[in-house]
Amino acid sequence: MSQGTIIGPLEDKQLEPGEPRTRRFFLAAAGIAGFGYAAALAYPIYRYLASPNEMALAEAAVKEVTLKDAQKLPAGSVLMFKFGPRPAMLIHHANGQWIAMTAVCTHLGCTVQYEPGPDRIHCACHGGVYNAYTGANVSGPPPRPLQLFKVAVTPAAVEVSRV
Ligand code: FES
Question: Which of 3, 7, 107, 142 is deepest in the core (most CB within 10 A)?
Answer without folding.
Answer: 142
